[in-house]
Specification:
Blueprint lengths: L5 E4 L4 H13 L4 E4 L10 H6 L7 E4 L2 E3 L2 H12 L11 H32 L6 H17 L13 H10 L14 H11 L4 H24 L2
Parallel strand pairs: 1-2
Antiparallel strand pairs: 1-3, 3-4
Pfam family, one: GST_C
Subunit structure: Homodimer.
GO biological process, one term: glutathione metabolic process
């Protein structure tokens, strides 16, 4: 028997949850290897040797190692999701569109979440400024624009871009709230994704856990 691909992950991590959503969508079982980020388990010599970027998720599939959530999602659909090709289409134009949204997540959405969260979660910061929050909310305007006349971020078919972006948005929408009157399409998109049968266990719980942890750490840092 083939051994299952192994995923080093944390439910707190939005990129980890994007990969878990992708695996669920294609019906792929992963061997899950939890990593505790707050305890620095991603900084051990063994982990850094496997992934010099020391990020999670990290996928090990036989002798293949892949270290970025967006790349992992595309790889899993390509290798194990033949029946679900629409998630990461082979058509060049459609794929380029999905890739563009994946870059939007890594370059803007997730980058801005990190800019706000990381100093507070890891370095005792108390800075949860209006500027940082507004910087995240600017991304909502972009997403609203892409969702203008379609159900999902790349048209009317669900793709891995939706998984990557929803994992990030739902991890930060307490501290950077989404105005449902200003962003009705974004609000509808979030509701639509929440209807997926595997969504609650795979994304919602981890997102809520991260938001709760963030608020607790911010309060703790401010009380010092």
């Amino acid at each position: 028997t083939m051994s299952k691909p192994a995923l080093y992950y944390a439910t707190l991590s939005p990129p980890s949850r994007a990969v878990l959503l992708t695996a669920k969508a294609i019906g792929l079982e992963l061997e899950l290897r939890p990593i505790n980020l707050l305890k620095g388990e991603h900084l051990t010599p063994e982990f850094v040797k496997m992934n010099p970027q020391h990020t999670i998720p990290t996928l090990i599939d036989g002798d293949v190692s892949i270290t970025d959530s967006h790349a992992i999602c595309g790889y899993l659909v390509g290798k194990y999701g033949a029946a679900h090709e629409a998630l990461y289409p082979k058509d060049l134009v459609k794929r380029a569109n999905v890739d563009a949204r994946l870059h939007l997540d890594s370059g803007h959405l997730f980058a801005r979440l990190r800019f706000l969260y990381e100093p507070i979660l890891y370095y005792g910061s108390t800075d949860c400024s209006i500027d940082k929050i507004a910087y995240i909310q600017k991304c909502y305007e972009i997403l609203e624009g892409f969702l203008n006349d379609q159900t999902y971020l790349c048209g009317n078919e669900l793709t891995i871009a939706d998984f990557c972006c929803v994992a990030t948005v739902t991890s930060v929408n307490d501290v950077a709230p989404i105005d449902e009157f200003k962003f009705p399409k974004l609000t509808a998109w979030l509701k639509k994704l929440a209807e997926l049968p595997y969504y609650k266990d795979t994304n919602e719980e981890g997102a809520e856990e991260l938001k709760t942890l963030f608020k607790a750490k911010l309060a703790e840092n401010r009380s010092k």
